[in-house]
Each structure stands twice: as C-alpha cells, then as structure tokens.
Automatic annotation (TrEMBL), chains A, B:
It catalyses: 7-aminomethyl-7-carbaguanine + guanosine(34) in tRNA = 7-aminomethyl-7-carbaguanosine(34) in tRNA + guanine. The gene is tgt. This is Queuine tRNA-ribosyltransferase. Binds 1 zinc ion per subunit. InterPro entries: ArchSynthase1/Queuine_TRR, TGT, TGT-like_sf, tRNA_ribo_trans-like.
Length: 374, 374
C-alpha cells in the first residue's frame, strides 16, 4: 500500500480519517474540486487551497489532447504546470472518452477515438492510460475502465463490467511498483447487486491502494444510487479509501458519507458558479433571479468566502446578469467553499459521533428556504 | 479646491506628486484601471489594489443603464457595491454615449439615446450626468462633454468644443459645492492649438479641481497626439492635476508624462489580458503564439505578479488557447501590474531627476525583444 489511510473515527458505516500522501494529507470524507484542463475554472490554485481543498482532480482525456501528457512531463509534471503542490488524482480517461470523443471504436485492447478539439486520432488502453497518468505525475492514478451508457440491459452491464475487470488487471500490471503513487481500482456493475459483488471480488483479488465506485450518477436518480450505496461500499476493503466518482449534489454527498464513502469529485460547484447558481446551507440559489436585484444582504451571512464577505446579492445578481468574469470567480469560490465547509462539518460530526444530528440540521436548514423575503 | 495636490518633484515638464482625496492618496503620475460595469474585468478589487493601483475609473454610461445609478445609491454607493474603498473617478458618459448608444439625438440640452443593452430610452445632459455621478458616490466627477467623431473639419471641432465649454459651465453649476468630491473639466479642440487654447481659457475661467485633456487617442496616431501634448498641458493650471483620458500604450504614457501629464486611464491592459496579449518591460507578447508552447520560462522573470511567479509561458499559452478563465485572470493581473510598475518607475525617476535615463532604459529594453529564443 503506497499511502497510509488512518481511519480516526466511525459513526455507523461512516468514517473520517486521513489519507497520507507524499504531497500532503487528505482529510476524509474529502471533496476534490475538478481541474479538467489544468485549472479549476475561474479559480487560482491558491484560492482553491484557501477553501480547504486537500486534493484536486485532473482529467486524463482533456490533458492528453491539450496540451499533451509528454509536454506536461517535459515541463516538470502537472503539479508544477498548474501551480498546485498538493496531491492530484487523475481519472483514467475512460469516462470522458465515451462521453466526449467522436468516432470511438471499442475493442478488448482499448478505445480508438478522435479528439473533440481537433479531430486528431488517439488510443486509450489500460497501458496507455497508465503511461499518460505517469507522465502527468498523478499521485492517485485510476485504473482504466469502460462506462457503459445507460439505460443498458443487464447482459450489457455485465459484459462491460467484466471487460473493466480485465482492464483493471492490465492497469495493475502496467502501473507496476511506483513508490509515492497509488493506484485505485473502479467497481462497476450498474444497479445490480450481484454484478457489484462480482466486480468487488475481482478488484480485491487484484489488490489496489483504494477503491472507487463507478458507473453511478449517470442519470439513475438519487434513490437508485442510494440503494446501490446501501451495499456497494461494504463490498470493498474496509481499510482502504472508497471513492464515489462524479458525485454530486450536497445531499448526494451527505447520503453517501452516511453509507461509508470517503472521497468525492464533481464539476457541479464550479460549473454552477459559472451560470449564476450558488449552493448554500439553505439550498441552491439562482443569482440571476430578479428578486436579488435590490437585496443588500450577503449570499450567506455565515459563509467566510470573499463573495459572502465583500458583496451583496444585488452585486452578484448584477455581475451574473452582465456576464462579468468576476461573477464566475466569486460564485465558484463560494460554491467550493460551501462544499469544503460541508465536508469539514461531516468530518467533525463523525468525530463527535453525531452524524445523525448533523444530517437533521442539514435537512432543516435546507427546508427553511434560501433567505427571508426582504 | 476639494483635494490638495502636492507636487513633490519636477523633471523638465514632468511632475510627480500626491493628490489627497478623502478616500486615500493618489500617487501621480497615476494609472487608473477601468472598472466599467462595477468590476475591473477578471480581477477581484483586492488584487487590483495589490498591483499598486490607488484609484479606479467607473463608466457612468454603463452603470446608469445597468444596474442603474439610483439602485447603486440605494445599495450604499459604488464603492460599497463593488467592494473598493479607495477613490473612484467616473467619466461623464459623454464619450460612451457617442460610441455605444443607438438612436442618438444631440441638442444644446444634451443627448437622447437608446441603451445598447435593452433599447430603453435615456437622456444625458450636464445636469443628469452630475446627478448620476453624485448617486454613484464618485470621488472625482468629470464634466459632461461631447466628443466629436474624427476625422472632422475644424469648424465642426470648434463648434463641438464650444458646446462642451457651455456644458462645462452647466456641469460646474449643477455640481455645486460638494466637500470631499472633486469636479474635473475637460479640454477639447482636437489637434488645433488655437482651439485647445480657447478651451483651456474657458475652463480656467470656470474653475475646476483638475483638468482633463479629452479628444485624443481616437485614431490620430502617437505623433499627432504628442504634438498636441507638446503644448496642451501647459495651457492648464500648473497647480492642479492634468488627466489624459483613455491613454494608452506604455510608450504613449511615458511620452505624456514627459510632457506634463499626471493621470491616465485605459482599458488596454485589462482588455489585452482577455485576448492573450501581455505587456512587459520588453514590449508586447502574444501568448497565443505557438513559440510559447514548450517554454518553461516565466512571462517576465523580473515581474512580481502571480502570473510571472507561478506559471510558465507554456502554461499561459495553454490556458489562453483553451479559453480558460484563469488565462484572463492571470494576464489581466500581469498587465495591470506592469502598468503600475511603470508608473512607479516614472514617479521614482522624476523624484530622482533622471526621467531621461529612465526613458532611455525603457526604450532599450523594448528594443531587445521580448525574450531570447529557447
């Protein structure tokens, strides 16, 4: 095992702890902001750090196409390139190649595709994904997997999962022994409990430094996702971090932590910040709405981010409607701050043994509505 | 006079000093970043302050249309609205209404026009411009003037200048007595020395807290502008600040300071920052150019801004080509830092009595080219 994972407290199935990497500790449950193209959009990395983020996620698919993994390696690796000295997790490219690339051809060997940027031809396979993630200098490398488009019948899901498990073995073999770097396997199997169990067994047999739950948050809805999470995390090794990929809304994260998940990533807080949508303790707030036009109050009076300390809702409404870059900058910062504050609250609640109380307060605040009428 | 203006050093016609406002000192020669719509685009105001800016410029035309001057007044004024507690100068709206608005009708009374945003009808006159700038809470208010489109014959320039002088008197009358706020008059007269003299006489007779040189940097070219500046600043009161509106490139500013100008504003550094263009001691650099693709060196090794301290030219090239917001953020910061460093260098050179040496070094550095080949 490359990185020590110290579970420091438990409350039911939920755990809080620290994953110790060579580039710094990751406090879990952890939310990883997404820095797709070597930037968390509209944020300087110093600001991302200020929100309390311990680790970023980079997208292998985007970076291999532009500026290119070899180029980033020549320039000293992704950390130096994007000016982030904390840990970075890179995905394998498997999800994005299926959702963004054109002219895809999937075989046992891997995926041939054309770039969505310039049409150039590329190949992703377990071996090339490991090599690209090595060139990037990723601290936590994800095994290369296939994400089947949903809805799909069980036979298709099963075949896809078994392909991903063969690719997981090839990823493990290609990754080799890299002290100071970790490799995570990805459980697949859709919504089927027996396939999730089969996948988990295959991954445990190979042996990884951490285990992701893949193939969720792809349109199945929260209830179906929670049904999977009622059993899937328990199928994975108790002593290693569990990472739910691409999740999610604040209440998705709370429900997943309750069910034993340790790590998350999602574009939602940063993407929302660029469209005038804020996430707060009182639920989502659309700053483009005219009701904020004359509101002198901060977005969230209890938040410590620059948007809430320095500006009124009226200002955030104005810059959002006027498509000013500072609107994206301030709302992205706020949203990432809210997400990190939520994770800190969950960690503290687990340490205090009062996750139930935290969740009751979380639900109550959201039910109150986003703010009183002026 | 509302604000004391202490001229602390002279070198030839150039002066350095301090304009003391109720919201803080403005070191001159000063460059004012432009915050058109209540934001210096892609910058938080704390960052603008970090570059060394003492004062911002706001655009009356944009703010009256969106979010509206009355709204800003109800929200506590422009300073609180945009989270900038230093001095703010607002233009009169005269220039923008002629360049941006549609369905303009110009009379002795003022200008009727339709908003370029939503087509709504508005009026700008000396009296309404003073009222709007009062509602915004501007520290330095500009008299309302007309800027004739160039090229125009001398009779047209003369008639326009005389209208602006009648409007200057009405601006002065409407402004009244507002302790803690200053009113600047604007000299017009195009490239004609006799018209510039007539305009300066009219303004001096009315009496203002400062004097702007208007109607330049509208396509006449640097040589023609410098010919005007060889005499125009000397026509204005020696003991009050002189402000050259809408200027300019770094070498425009250096030449204007040499000729006795104290204040400047221009969108160039911020606008350039959003299109991949950087301004440096070695001249302009287009980061979109492929030659930067693999360059590990900073944009300017002697610059202290975050773009130069944290990133390679290769990274700036990447984020500029990928249209990432951080590209606009970093290059705008750099450009504003460069402009403020240039002003600080000019102030020091004047204090040292070596403006000629400074300008020689300025020209030499630019002649060397932006960087050695890799």
């Amino acid at each position: 095992m490359s990185f020590a994972f110290d579970i420091q407290a438990r409350d039911g199935r939920a755990r809080s702890g620290v994953l110790r990497t060579t580039r710094g500790d990751i406090r879990t449950p952890a939310f990883m902001p997404v820095g797709t193209a070597a930037t968390v959009k509209a944020m300087r990395p110093e600001s991302v750090r200020e929100t309390g983020a311990d680790i970023l996620l980079g997208n292998t698919y985007h970076l291999m196409l532009r500026p290119g993994a070899e180029r980033i390696a020549r320039l000293g690796g992704l950390h130096r390139f994007m000016n982030w000295d904390g840990p970075i997790l890179t995905d394998s490219g498997g999800f994005q190649v299926m959702s963004l690339a054109s002219l895809r051809k999937l075989t046992e060997a891997g995926v041939r595709f054309s770039s969505h940027i310039d049409g150039s031809k590329h190949v992703l396979s377990p071996e090339s994904s490991m090599e690209i993630q090595r060139l990037l200098g990723s601290d936590i490398v994800m095994a290369f997997d296939e994400c089947p488009a949903l809805p799909a019948d069980k036979a298709r899901i099963a075949a896809s999962m078994r392909l991903s498990m063969r690719w997981a073995q090839r990823s493990r073999d290609a990754f080799g022994d890299r002290p100071g770097h970790a490799l995570f396997g990805i459980q697949q199997g859709g919504l089927a409990r027996d396939l999730r169990e089969e996948s988990a067994e295959a991954l445990r047999a190979i042996g990884f430094d951490g285990y992701a739950i893949g193939g969720l948050a792809v349109g199945e809805g929260q209830a179906a996702m929670f049904e999977v999470l009622d059993h899937a995390p328990q199928m994975l090794p108790e002593d290693r971090p569990r990472y739910l990929m691409g999740v999610g809304k604040p209440d998705d994260i709370v429900g997943a932590v309750l069910r034993g998940v340790d790590m998350f990533d999602c574009v939602l807080p940063s993407r929302s910040g660029r469209t005038g949508q804020a996430w707060t303790r009182r639920g989502p707030v659309n700053l483009r709405n005219a009701r904020h036009r004359d509101d002198p109050r901060p977005l969230d009076e209890s938040c410590t981010c620059p948007a809430c300390r320095g500006y009124s809702r009226a200002y955030l409404h104005h810059v959002t409607r006027a498509d000013e870059i500072i609107g994206s900058m301030l709302l992205t910062w706020h949203n990432l701050q809210y997400y990190q504050d939520l994770m800190a609250g969950l960690r503290q609640a687990i340490a205090d043994g009062d996750l139930a109380g935290f969740i009751a307060a979380f639900d109550r605040q959201r039910a109150e509505g986003d703010i009183e009428p002026l």
